[in-house]
Amino acid sequence: MTEGQLSQSEKVALRERVKELTCLYGIAQVARQPDKPLQNILQSIVELLPPAWQYPKVASARLNLDGVCYTAGDFSACCQKQSAEIFVNDAPKGLVEIGYTENEPQLDEGPFLKEERSLLNEIARQIALIVEHRQAEEDKIKLYGQLRHADRLATVGMLAAGVAHELNEPVGNILGFAQLAKKAEKIPASVKKDIDKIEAASLDARDIIQKLLVFARQVPPEKKSVNLNDIVKNGLYFLEARCAKEGTELVCVLSPNLPEVIADPVQLNQVLVNLVVNALQSMGQKAGKIMVQTKSNEQEVCLVVEDTGCGMSKEVLDEIFTPFFTTKDIGCGTGLGLPVVHGIVTGHNGVINVESKVGQGTRFEIHLPLKKPPKIKDAN
Ligand SMILES: Nc1ncnc2c1ncn2[C@@H]1O[C@H](COP(=O)(O)OP(=O)(O)OP(=O)(O)O)[C@@H](O)[C@H]1O
Ligand SMILES: [Mg+2]
After folding, report:
1. Residue list, ligand 1 pocket, CB within 6 Å
2. Number of neighbouring beta carbons within 10 Å of residue 299
3. pLDDT tens across 303-331, in order?
């Protein structure tokens, strides 16, 4: 049958179906552009909607997604509207709407056809699929980045451990012979001063080697049953005076009935000190607040160190666990504090979460599992 043989109403209906299909085809085309930012894709989709409705000349469209609004035409002037909710991963995320700026005769749903209702629902579904697909892609890229970062840290760790091992002995020898030389009789005072410098420098070097070994998890933790609250109380005792001197308020919120955890108390103290010292240093000259908190649930205990300091940019955040990465002046930081924290926490099968906002502050969360996951028994 040709178009000429169709009745007037059939022709109108056919034209409407062609418009709807053109719209859906357009959406599919737009969605197939992986390099296009999601915002641009959504704007293009909104612009495809008015021509698909029965009165395109007076039709406008609006899409609201996650609080961002995209429009085609003057939607605020619309008097007759139709809308469909968008569910992304089953959660309501927004609304897609069509409206006419002039009153049109009543049809199936106000001035709209029932086919237009189906089309709008389908468009809402397509938009949700596009957003879900984008999110999955972004999650994949993020996970890949995290894996690459973990891989890089492991490589750096192996390298650091190798270098640290090689240096341990010669540095030990330098220190030992310097201390021996100092004991020799009748050495002039100036030479003794030089030997003191050699001794101090080799002690510094030994300290760095020790930190590298902890980062590379070459220093096995000496674990026993410990209460994180005791570690925090003892550790903060020494840090309180330093905070007060620098005008920083130190607030401590300890959870009562915190379960004990199997851990190395010396290493956990090191984690606390490194985090609190960083928090203190992030204040610069301004007065601020540091909050140290302990929490627990059935699976883990958690140490939180939160500050109102300078915060970190994404670039800094990406590097904080890399040995020797520091933003501090030469001589003020070795860039080993957080790598040591990383080494200790992973040595306890724990996890570190960091959130930071430039100019607002930083929050470190250390999660330590209460028990090792149960071993899977053999079937026989
Ligand atoms: N609480 C924080 N607020 C803002 N920046 C931080 C914070 N903690 C760490 N950083 C950033 O991370 C970098 C690395 O920290 P890390 O503790 O590893 O080394 P460092 O403090 O520079 O030197 P070190 O701890 O060896 O004295 C710091 O130089 C700083 O830029
Ligand atoms: Mg530090």
Report:
1. 274, 278-279, 282, 307, 309-312, 316, 320, 325-328, 333-339, 362
2. 11
3. 999 999 999 999 999 999 988 899 998 87
